[in-house]
Amino acid sequence: MSRVLVIGAGGVGSVAVHKMAMSPEIFSSITLASRRKAKCDAIALSVKQRIGVTIATAELDADDVAATTALIKQAQPKLVVNLALPYQDLAIMEACLAAGVHYMDTANYEPRDEAKFEYSWQWAYQERFKAAGLMALLGSGFDPGVTSVFTGYTAKHLLDRIDTLDILDCNGGDHGHAFATNFNPEINIREVTAPSRHWQDGAWVEGPPLAHKQSFDFEAVGPKNMYLMYHEELESLAKFYPEIKRIRFWMTFGDAYLKHLEVLSNVGMTRIDPVMFEGREIIPLQFLKALLPEPASLGPTTRGKTNIGTIATGLKDGVQKTVYVLNICDHEEAYAETGNQAISYTTGVPAMIGAALILTGQWQGAGVFNMEQLDPDPFMDMLNRHGLPWQVKTLDAPLAF
Ligand code: NDP
Fold first, then answer.
1. Of 76, 168, 183, 343, which has fewest CB within 10 angstroms of its CB?
2. Cα–Cα dist 228/251, whole Å
3. CATH superfamily membership of 2-138
4. Most informative mutation of 36, 88, 106, 140 for ligand 1 (most atoms within 8 A of CB)
5. Is 213 a pocket residue for ligand 1 (Cβ < 6 Å)?
């Protein structure tokens, strides 16, 4: 029985808190804090109506380390689950150290003024968390998160040696809008407009954004175009699995999404540097975010499924083998259960699981950890029991591209 403080009342925070409330034997007391208390209260009402559990709410600017430390001391959680934005990661880690509690998130720290997608800033906290006897768990969402655990499971149970790894992220959902992003628009657009990068023979290979396309037939979705991209889990997978020769990340995008993105980029709306507008500075991407639908509002209209998994080729008992570990998630079922679409669901459920494993002591350690450093088995077991069942397929041959 343990107390938890969740920071961030977006789509992911909403799913995580609903799922935590369904396991009161693990999460004895839940506090949800965010920039706007009204958003926390709306989620608390939904949790009360759907599950019958009362959660506490609070208003918090998590960029303010002193305010966050004070709230932690007042709420007395064993763990802080950061589901705000990547900009808040370091401030919340500082507050956890100041208050003496464990830390967890789903996305690596990002400076506001440059899109970096790297772990260096958070890995730099290793000695401080270790000295304090506290755990900081990084990236307990789907990707990073479940895909990292799928890789750990593949290395532990399915292959003796992994030579190549491909992460395939397909959202076959349709939300009915001409253009919307299914998680935070600012972070999403920073991610997809960045140069592509993959790991090959011990070095990064860079290319232009969204230039390398392949078609892939996804179970339960059908054939989709997917694009080679950089994604943050590549960095930690390359670090913790040095034997893997090639690691790539692919994400599907529809033609209409890409057309809108191209136009928005061409006119400068995706820029993250300040520009002067009517006598004051604005960041074009932040202005664009204000115009786009909130990801949490897409739930009622989104139909279709997500299919996200890892394809690894390597050796098993001396013979080459290719294994595909994947999860399929239905947008409408996710919405019916928690009031949020599958992108928030596939991130919020793993956030709940990572938190549960820390609180129950099944995952423990002092220092900063990425998901693939921990035993995949209890996590894989909970995925099956909490709404994200997975399957393993053996493919006849490695990917042909
Ligand atoms: P949203 O934008 O919907 O939610 C973010 C929430 O954090 C909002 O409620 C926002 O408040 C709040 N917030 C922002 N700044 C602050 C602050 N300074 N102090 C307190 N609260 C703040 O995003 P999502 O729910 O879609 O995503 C949440 C996180 O999950 C992001 O970091 C995202 O990158 C990550 N993610 C990870 C994935 C994975 O697979 N690993 C996949 C998808 C998302 P307000 O409502 O007032 O703006």
1. 76
2. 7
3. NAD(P)-binding Rossmann-like Domain (3.40.50.720)
4. 106
5. no
Fold of the 146-339+388-395 domain: Dihydrodipicolinate Reductase; domain 2 (3.30.360)
Instruction: Return d(Cα 29, Cα 252) in angstroms, integer.
Output: 38
Q: What is the CA radius of gyration of the chain?
A: 20
pLDDT tens for each residue of 277-307: 999 999 999 999 999 998 878 889 999 999 9
- pLDDT at site 1: 60
Q: Where are the domains of the chain?
A: 2-138, 146-339+388-395
Token pair of 157, please? 């149970």
Beta bridge mates, 198: 205
Tokens of 271: 């820029």
* Global pTM value: 0.96
Spell out the residues 6+ positions from residue 306 whose beta carbon is closer than 8 angstroms to its own.
170, 171, 172, 173, 327, 328, 329, 331, 342, 343, 346
CA-to-CA distance for 383 and 375, rounded, in angstroms? 14
